[in-house]
Amino acid sequence: MIGMFDSGSGGLTILAGCRALLPHQKFLYLGDHARAPYGEKTPGQILDFTRTMVGELFARGCGLVVLACNTASAIALRELQENWLPAHHPERRLLGVLVPTVEALTGLPWDRDAPGLAENCPASVGVFATRRTVEAGTYGREIRRRAPTCAVIEQSCPGLVSAIEDGAIGRNAAQDELTALVGGFTKTLLARMKEETAGPPAVVLLGCTHYPMVEELFRAALPAATKIVSQPGVVARALWAYLERHPHMAGGGKDETSLHLLTTGDPAAVIDPACFAPGGLPAFERLD
Ligand code: DGL
Fold first, then answer.
1. Of 18, 62, 69, 121, which is the active-site residue?
2. Is 121 among the catalytic positions?
3. 25 lines ligand 1 (CB under 6 A)
4. First to last CA, the chain
């Protein structure tokens, strides 16, 4: 069984991408709705919460956990991989979303990080993400390390995750709020990019797993020539490739119990999972 973790419901977009590519894979999803949004928490809190949540997934039998959360991946992943796993769970594995995303953006495997190798990297990349992901600066640093001439602007989007989690999807009044938020952040990013490059970004990354839920709003606000990279397909292909290399980490199952969604919050108050990934998702159960 593969565990998948996010601060809330955003990781369901990643889960949907993974299930489309790995339909017989067993997944256990955990959303820390009680403490979301992580993007507004301190790095210390994000590390603590992430460690606890991954521990819950390990305790329930997951050998491999995917942090389907950019904020947790940017702040906590390295520390957990380098220190916590070897000391406490040496046989378990933990993956994040940043590595496959940087690989997709630059067209290079992660370990080929010498400058000048990323010939296919776009000339400019805009990144929308949470405040903590932007502060960590991982996307800008890792892209520039491979493609020093690439202009990278990282734009934080405070309030957007909460608006999505609050069930804004599908309600007309709240839809206006989402449109205004996305429009405002996009306008700011375009102005910053224009100052730096005199043009719009060639590529924009939706660097928070909640944002694919409002991808059409970003699409409408961005110039038509700007390509959007959204993570569900990118992470799903990376997981598929990982399982090809490490087949013992896969867990098959075709029965209806092969997917469970757990939440630290009140299942009745959590937005319907179908909003994030239409098609046969079970309801959230409370983590006991
Ligand atoms: N969905 C998460 C991410 O990808 C975190 C959102 C949040 O809790 O702030 O960053």
1. 69
2. no
3. no
4. 19
Round to whole Å and give the CA distance between 130 and 175.
20
* Shared domain check, 237 and 225: no
Task: Say whether both 152 and 34 belong to one domain.
Answer: no
pLDDT at 150: 96
227 and 237 fall within a common domain? no
C-alpha angle 204-210-216 in degrees, rounded to nearest 5 = 55
Look at residue 136 in the predicted model and tell me its pLDDT.
98
**Distances 106 to 115, 118, 146, 174, 178 between C-alpha atoms, Å:** 11, 6, 7, 36, 30
Over residues 123-139, the pLDDT tens digits come to 999 999 999 999 999 99
For residues 86 and 186, state if they share a domain.
Answer: no
Q: What pLDDT is recorded for position 250?
A: 86
H or E segment at 237?
A: helix 231-245
- Domain with 40, as residue range(s), is 2-96+233-286
Residues 201, 138 share a domain: yes
Structure confidence at residue 274 (pLDDT): 79
- What does the alpha-carbon distance between residue 197 and residue 194 come to, in Å, rounded to a whole number? 5
Q: What are phi and psi of 94, to 5 degrees?
A: -135, 125
69 is catalytic: yes
Contacts of 268 (CB under 8 A, 6+ apart): none
Q: What pLDDT does 66 receive?
A: 98
What per-residue confidence (pLDDT) applies to 279?
67
Considering the domain architecture, whether residues 264 and 184 belong to the same structural domain is answered as: no
Ranges of the chain with pLDDT below 70:
167-173, 252-257, 277-279
Q: Looking at the 3D structure of the chain, how many domains does it have?
A: 2
CATH code of 159's domain: 3.40.50.1860
CA distance 199 to 125: 11
pLDDT of 171 reads: 65
Q: Does residue 73's CB lie within 6 angstroms of at least one atom of ligand 1?
A: no
